[in-house]
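Reopening closed ticket. The problem is back. First fold of the pair:
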Amino acid sequence: MTKTIKVLLIVLLTLMIAALIFIMVFVMKNGFVDLGMSDNDMKLVDSFEATVMETEKIYLDLDSADVKITDADADTDKITVKYYSNYDSSVTIENVGGTVSVDEAKSDKPKNFFHLKKRVEISVSEAFTGEYRIVGKSSDVYAENDLTNNVVIISLNSGDVALASAGNLFVNTDSGDVTVDKINKKTVIMTSSGDAAINKADLKGASEISALSGDIVISELNMKENVSITTSSGDVTVRKNLSRCYVETDTSSGSVSVDKGDRKSDIVLTVTTSSGDIFVH
């Protein structure tokens, strides 16, 4: 056995011993971790119900709970909020001054944090045209209902956002992907470390989409006012530009394939990258 192989074996053995020590210490402090827990292990912690007439805004102040928003039954005017968790957690759900708020306790420390799961489920009558404001430290946000008549404001430290449709949309996430099927009004999307993907963007207000280190893809774009798309180290792709606009591009070290559009138009699509490719057609 050569000296090099001996050294590698010693390093490998040292790493294995260190890993075992870490696991032993963690188990002593926290107990055994069941990584196989499913959503079925979550229990209803609290629930709340309000009518559309008495609700102007839905506000979620979350630590790490995920969010799922769905349509309520067609014949109801209710907004129902349910909070689930697989451990004893604390949450306050109430309606104060027309705002249905969900305030998740920030100091809870579960015994086995590897399998921690928390979720807020909101079923909303289609008659609700108020504002959604979602603030989270580590939360995924999923909405399958039609939000085109709402203002939606989402601010996350980390987490993905997936929406079926939105009207006025404002999203800011430090680490997460943003996916929207349809947008039909003003849009501001900013993600530091994640991709942004929009299937159909019919933008009726000045809009901005930016990704610090991610790709931006818009399958179909129709804009009525100026739009700015910016990424530092990602590609920008607009597969089908239906707008009567002029396209301005700026890239430091990327390739450009662009249909410049109508140079006389007052509406401008500005696409800027530092080290990414630009494709607009």
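Second fold of the pair, where the issue appears:
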Amino acid sequence: MSRLGIVLGCALVLAGCGGGSEGHAASEATEHAPAPDAAADAAGEAAHPLAGLDPCVAPEEPLVAGVTLEGGAGRYRVLMVRTTEPVDSVTGSMELSDPPVGFERYRDMSVPLMGWADLPLDSVGAHVTGRVDIADPSAPGVLVLETEGEGVPPRILVRFGAEANRRDVANFEGGYTVWEVRDVGPGGFRGVWRSGVRGPEISGYFCAVRVKG
């Protein structure tokens, strides 16, 4: 297979094949997916599509009501696949943590997690709106947003870029790169993504698998 096949193969063993930001790449490259504690747990997790990114495929169903990323703080290995021509992919890492007191909401959405990523978005043509490798709560590189209510479809969004995630400025006309989570499992989450800036969008799918650390 082409480069996509190579990247998928690397992701299956959770080896850091993608590039990295200074200060994080060395520690992240040796991380591996956690092994289940018992045979029964192993059988259950192996049946889930998120178990070790095997395989990482685009989810077909919408997010189920009641699903949340709350409690999902930790380190993740990431595979991001672009399906808009030309097809491409990239691997990286991401660290999410609980928001500090006072940062649990962003406008009309809840914020279960925020953090930073070591993920070269521009290598798949995704728009970069500020740094993604910064964890400043006022403008984090990665911001998880959730909404659910009566008559409102559940949504979990992962938005990238410190400028896009600033709390003091609404980014109405700027570029964006956003993941839309469609599936949350015992070892991570997956979904689809889109990116653009005043023009045609590019899109694809992603998988994020929790690693030890």
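Update: turned out to be a display glitch only; the data is intact. The chain has one domain: 3-211. The two ends are 32 Å apart (CA to CA). Please close again.
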